[in-house]
Design brief:
heterodimer, A: 103 residues, mainly alpha, Helix Hairpins, B: 178 residues, Four Helix Bundle (Hemerythrin (Met), subunit A)
């Protein structure tokens, strides 16, 4: 392989860092969901990299990536549905203003 | 420089810049479009890592389905709070003024670079058991065989999960019919 293994791994770490920053500091629920998707993508890059470099003819890492994609799609569907209902019922998308469960 | 490495660096730069823009850009619609760009660039990286099936799945599922869903949610929710002002960083104003430019957000880049640097340092000290084998042809056949033999049960569980998520999303968003 021409590309050193450290390159994609570092890219994955960078993407995860950006996604983590977004998920922790943003208050817009849709943007938090986007940041979570970024983090999942960073994990996928790492999985595919390890699959390619360490076990090139045994596709376990890629199969795990397929399942991560499935769960990401399910999570996005339910998360966006919840955000839509919140927006319809209470007209908010700002998670700082969703304090229904606060005593 | 090796053209393969150069192509990887270009794709990585596109991914990194659009990821940062997802977090820092002011309009949420632009963030969704930058997210799609990041996903497509990651699909290119998958192609470079010889994961052709996953590259196609990445474009279909992430860049196609999830981005469309997010954009639909943004348009349908019709929430008037999606404005530049909702992107305030929870850092002290003085600190923010000095370190974070308005559009490009120096601070998230700095944090992510610190994180990536730490991980790079960790990875460099790790002796990975690298294999020199070449990938034999397309991965799709092998992936399908393994998925339906060795991983048949997780595969079926994943389909149930998707079904449950679909029904849940429909029930959550459906208007009550009496």
């Amino acid at each position: 392989m021409a590309i050193p293994i450290l390159y994609p791994l570092t890219l994955g770490a960078f993407l995860f860092g950006v996604g983590l920053y977004g998920a922790l500091t943003k208050t817009n629920a849709i943007r938090i969901l986007m940041s979570v998707e970024l983090m999942l993508n960073a994990v996928n890059i790492n999985l595919v990299t390890f699959s390619r470099y360490i076990t090139p003819n045994n596709y376990r890492g890629q199969i795990l990536t397929v399942f991560v994609m499935t769960v990401a799609a399910a999570e996005a569907a339910v998360g966006l549905a919840i955000i839509l209902v919140l927006g319809r019922n209470r007209n908010v998308v700002d998670i700082d203003k969703i304090t229904l469960l606060k005593g | 420089m090796n053209p393969q490495v150069l192509l990887f660096l270009v794709l990585a730069a596109i991914t990194a810049v659009s990821a940062v823009r997802v977090v820092t850009t002011e309009l949420i619609t632009h963030a969704a479009l930058f997210l799609a760009l990041a996903f497509v660039a990651v699909a290119g990286i998958f192609l470079q890592l010889q994961a052709d099936f996953l590259a196609a799945a990445q474009v279909l599922i992430y860049a196609g389905a999830i981005t469309t869903m997010i954009i639909f949610a943004i348009m349908l929710s019709d929430i008037h709070e999606i404005k530049p002002s909702d992107q305030e960083d929870p850092f002290p104003v003085r600190f923010r003024r000095r370190w974070a430019s308005r559009q490009w957000g120096f601070f998230p880049v700095l944090l992510a670079l610190l994180f990536a640097g730490g991980m790079f340092w960790l990875y460099r000290g790790t002796g990975f058991a690298l294999s020199t084998e070449a990938v034999s042809g397309s991965t799709t056949v092998q992936l399908g065989l393994q998925l339906f033999n060795e991983y048949a049960l997780p595969f079926e569980l994943a389909s149930i999960l998707l079904l449950v998520a679909m029904i849940g999303a429909i029930i959550l968003t459906a208007k009550e019919v009496r």
